[in-house]
Amino acid sequence: MTKEKIEKKNEKEPVLDVKEVEVKNVVKDVTEKEKVAVIAKAGKRSAKAIKETEVKVAKEEKKKSVSTEEAPKKTIKPTRTKLERRGKKYKAVASKVDSKTQYSIDDAIKLAIDTATTKFDSTVELHMNLNVDPRHADQNIRDSIILPEGTGKTVRVAVFAEGKEADDAKKAGADIVGMEDFMKLLDAEKLDFDVLISTPMLMAKLGKYARLLGPKGLMPNPKSGTVTPDVAKAVTQAKAGKVEYRVDSTGIVHLGIGKVSFGEAKIKNNFSAVAANIKSNKPLSIKGAYIKAVYLTTSMGPSVSIDLASL
Fold this sequence. Notes:
Layout: H1 3-12, H2 18-21, H3 26-29, H4 47-68, H5 88-94, H6 105-114, E1 123-130, E2 142-146, E3 157-160, H7 164-172, E4 176-178, H8 180-187, E5 195-198, H9 203-206, H10 210-213, H11 231-240, E6 242-246, E7 252-259, H12 264-280, E8 291-298, E9 304-305
Parallel strand pairs: 3-4, 3-5
Antiparallel strand pairs: 1-7, 1-8, 2-6, 8-9
């Protein structure tokens, strides 16, 4: 192409300034009259993309307008108290107990028996909050005691022994006695007993069942008197009403001390025996008050606070 032809072509097609052609914010700033802007075949400036953006903006504006409107106020019902959520029977008997009053032992036992709501023979429970920290070995209160009036329960006793000890246990009234046969029951996870007693020589064989017996509180222990060479005596004590107690992680002792059918006198005898035993186990490291609070209750019944001065 000659120089003259190039000059003529440039005269016919004038060069446009870039600023004159640039379109800014095609989607946001264009009005209805200015929609004749440059529309690409694809991408953000395509007709389809512009339409979708407009729909999205319209939806957001609609949401904002709805949220600014006053929403109807919901009526929030006040939370019911623990007593209001109880059954009719419980409410009827709970009115007899003043939660802010501390009763003497005699009055507390009488109230606990009067407020028993179950059709079956309820267990009278003692809950004693001690000023101890179970994380310290000397404050991890644990002991066993024979209740003077018994527990009111039929206790099934199993004895892990052989030879003469096994014969003595049978004579004393043990329900399950043996070694090999008893281990077969443990292998089948049949725990049809309430107390397990073992001789010291055979404790090593019970070690592999610790995960089965331990969580259920059935693992024999020398502190509770269930590991002893005199198995006959241990069986007699268990049948007579021997119970074991231990503080939980919060320092509270929970123990059943009889049945409602025992009457006030027998319940008081068991209560006094347990209270005296717990007092005798006070750690030397505890300075000041040892017992923080004592409550008496029955199965599914209201708790009665006991005056510490009457202990």
